[in-house]
Amino acid sequence: MITNLNKKNKKNKNILAELDQVTKIFTNGEVVLKNLNLKIFKNDFITLLGKSGCGKTTILKILCGLLKTTEGKVNWPTSTFKNSEKNPANLSVVFQDPNLLPWLNVFDNIFLPLKLNKKNRKKNYQTVMNFIELVGLTDFKDYFPSQLSGGMKMRVAIARALITKPKVILMDEPFGALDEITRFKLNNDLLNIYKKYKLTIIFITHSIYESAYLSNKIALISDRPASINEIIYLDKDEEKNEDYYLSTDYLNKCKKISKKFNYYNEVANEE
Ligand SMILES: Nc1ncnc2c1ncn2[C@@H]1O[C@H](COP(=O)(O)OP(=O)(O)OP(=O)(O)O)[C@@H](O)[C@H]1O
Ligand SMILES: [Mg+2]
């Protein structure tokens, strides 16, 4: 069930993105990432699992070009991701905070990326409505962010990330602030969206449980300076639902991940 990715994926076929010996030192001298190597494969649902402050958001920002590396390279070898005006839609980011524009209603917040690409509102009305339906907010399309719950706001952020039909979504602890029931519901919705659109998802979390439920690969991140301790490979075809969430199988999986996670932390503390 859990195997080492390096054994599984000897061939580097289908690499979508690659961080190669990435080091990040901020201007205050803090070394946050050190010689970090990570390969993302097409259709991965990979979680970056690490303790608070270890450098997860920094990795995500480097991957999507919001931050530059101090040393090392970021490659997107097999994607068409060019981050150009012509082709801005291949990668979307969902941050921990939904970052909605308070003066726009649900519809217009979701339409915003299309608007920025000079798309016509009337012509794209149905497309926006389809994504609103996908995230279950049809009855709330005219609501403003101040009238929405935390979970609803996050649904808007997810729909807004999907509207440009990205191939890759980077998510930075998007459900961290939500209650367990809403989080579980959104986890399942996200898995359905991942399958439906054949996405590649890079998902940041510090929850072992969430990583075990969602992903097919887990990158265990070391404490600062961050590097990848190990990639854990999980069964991709397991059916995810409430029964599975409450199953011994799932709990055992969480236990194994937790043990590995603690092992690396103990080794690091001894050094
Ligand atoms: N612009 C910056 N200048 C200096 N240090 C920074 C900067 N941005 C982040 N850091 C530092 O880098 C380290 C890692 O931050 P980062 O936000 O990547 O952690 P994280 O793993 O995402 O944490 P959390 O789980 O709490 O979100 C922290 O010590 C932080 O203080
Ligand atoms: Mg963070």
Give the topology:
Layout (H helix, E strand, L loop, with lengths): L2 E2 H4 L6 E11 L5 E11 L3 E5 L6 H8 L7 E5 L15 E4 L11 H11 L8 H10 L15 H13 L5 E5 L7 H17 L3 E6 L2 H7 L2 E5 L6 E6 L8 H4 L2 H23 L1
Parallel strand pairs: 4-8, 4-9, 6-7, 7-8
Antiparallel strand pairs: 1-10, 2-3, 2-5, 9-10
Helix pairs in contact: 3-4, 3-5, 7-9
The structure holds adenosine-5'-triphosphate (ATP) and magnesium ion (MG).
Adenosine-5'-triphosphate binds next to helix 2.
Helix proportion of residues, in percent?
25-40%
What is the chain-wise order of helices and strands?
EHEEEHEEHHHEHEHEEHH
Q: Taking Cα atoms only, what radius of gyration do you get, to the nearest Å?
A: 19 Å
Ligand inventory: adenosine-5'-triphosphate, magnesium ion
Largest sheet: 7 strands, mixed
In round numbers, the mean pLDDT is 88
Number of helices in the DSSP assignment: 9
Stretches with pLDDT under 50, minimum 5 residues: 1-10, 83-89
Number of strands: 10
Q: Pairing-aware structural class of the strands and helices?
A: alpha/beta
Strand order of the largest sheet: 1-10-9-4-8-7-6
Termini separation: 30 Å
User: How big a fraction of the residues is strand?
Assistant: 15-25%
Shape: globular
Would you kindly provide a written description of the structure presented here, covering whatever features stand out?
By secondary structure, the chain is an alpha/beta fold. The chain has nine helices and ten strands. It has helices spanning 5-8, 56-63, 106-116, 125-134, 150-162, 180-196, 208-214, 242-245, 248-270, and strands spanning 3-4, 15-25, 31-41, 45-49, 71-75, 91-94, 168-172, 200-205, 217-221, 228-233. The strands form two sheets. Strands 1-10-9-4-8-7-6 form a seven-stranded mixed beta sheet, with helices on both faces. A three-stranded antiparallel beta sheet has the order 3-2-5, covered by helices on one side. The two termini are 30 Å apart. Residues 1-10 and 83-89 have low confidence and may be disordered. Magnesium ion (MG) binds next to helix 2. Residues 56-57, 172 line the site of magnesium ion.
